[in-house]
Hints:
Largest sheet: none
Low-confidence stretches: none
Radius of gyration: 14 Å
Amino acid sequence: MLLSLVVAPILIAISPTTEVISLYFRVFSIVSVIATVYYLFAMAKAIKLQSNPGSYQRISYGIQLSWLSVFSIVLM
């Protein structure tokens, strides 16, 4: 699940701009991938420190689901 929700925005970001996929959505895809990866690294650091990694995981997953929601709206 994680891999598919990270690969999809990357593919959208490198795809050519069309009538359906605008430049703004491609930029949003890049920002969401960067934010997702950042919180994944923060989660890994929290695991090493034995603190609360669940909150970072939820934030990362929330970013991915928000991208998916916006993508579904764009395709309408």
